[in-house]
Amino acid sequence: MAEALTTSAASAGLLDRDRSVAGPNFNRWLVPPAALAIHLCIGMAYGFSVFWLPMSRLLSGTDDAACKALGLSAMLTSTTCNWSVPLVTHTFEFFIAVLGISAALWGGWLERAGPRKAGFIAALCWGGGLILGGIGVSMHQLWLLWLGAGILGGVGQGLGYISPVSTLIKWFPDRRGMATGFAIMGYGGGAMIGAPIAVALMKHFGAGVPAHGVAATLIAMGILYFLVMSAGAFGMRIPPSGWRPTGWSPPASGLSKAMITAQQVHLNVAWKTPQFWLLWGVLCMNVTAGIGVISMASPMLQDVFGGHLIGLDTAAALTAAQKAAVVASAAGLVGLISLFNSVGRIFWASISDYIGRKVTYMVFFVLGMALYISLPTFGHLGQAGLFVAAVCLILTMYGGGFATIPAYLADVFGTQMVGAIHGRLLTAWSVAGIAGPFLIAAVRQAQIDAGIPHTLVYDRTLYILAGLLLVGLVCNLLVRPVNPKHYMSAEQLAREKALQREDRTAAGAELAARGSFGFAGVLAWAAIGIPFLIGVYIAIQKAAALF
Question: Which pTM does this prediction carry?
């Protein structure tokens, strides 16, 4: 059997699933840095805001009056009018929406293709999408920017986001939350690394004028991300079917483990169960509330606190210099958001291994409601420090919700098709990514139009977001173990394993991945950890202006 497995792997293509089966000298702790390499690259999605203003200033000497009269169709191909900030920000909406759609469409294929092939295609799409977007910027073709960075990049986002998930869960059955937390932490922290790189490259390529360096920066980052993601994809390994960590055995069933099944539910059945849609609601409500705060964090601080951010206790009109100082101070919150969003993913996901996924989400919703309801009071009292601390804690739970949900799905539906099920569930993110920012922006504008002072325009919105968390809490409380009638039979499970060719990768399960951590492990973690820590340092340095 071992000889047949060796022959099969040798004849398989470089991207074939069989070629990524771990050998006896592999160590499972080499998988998280490979996953992080992918997620840190696609996590630049959160840092794309550094491009919006430079993209709106690409052309000089334009006729602003004539440009305002142009409709959307004309702006898609216009080479004589600058794009507005709202137009270019649609790029973010595109790749977040396509992320969820592509993850849902190709999640089943991904399980059978394996993380190496899926990760490499994600590298082609995300890296290639940025390159195509850069070409669109150089030609001043908005449609090409949307097609490249938005749609093609969104496919790369979707495949890159879910490709490591089921692999990590299978490598760490003893620490599901921590394992997925490691990878998804990278998505939350990608902007900490990518945004400073993008800013530096725009200044370099633009000879000090960022707008002139946007196209070259997108192309350069596309190439960089393709190389790093490809390295992560080829570093991924899958365990042989039936592999277990040394000394670990599945926990005995009992009341405390009632939510963790040892059975498997097929993708085509899972999404029809009440549990799937309750968890969809759990993720959607948590993300809608959190992303609503993210989208307006900087202007919210400026509106609520104004001159208090720079130590002024006066209600008098601010000078131009003071306004600039307020903007700079509020911008520091962006760095803190990225940091807490990222750290919250590994923290809360690891905690969930001990207290359970359901209890973890109960904490998110109950504590989250208390914080959202408290934010208006902190604003009225002028307590900027408490306001910022509350927002940062909210963002840890926003990120923690993303990192904990794959392990929650594995507990409820089993690990066999958790990547594909997770892909379907991410459509909740697509909905929330549009609903959250729209809700907070629309209510804010309605309050301003009604004559409400800027210091009070967020009160109603924050109470609404607390109400959404209440809906999420109810959904979470209603989650129960799946009805046994939905479990795969032994024959169905064997068929699915055969489709994933697990029958050809089971021979070495007892001996596989028993190698030491070694120099390769140190090198892999350093390659990921050093840039991440540099990003943390930059985020803390920028956020220091708030205090």
Answer: 0.86
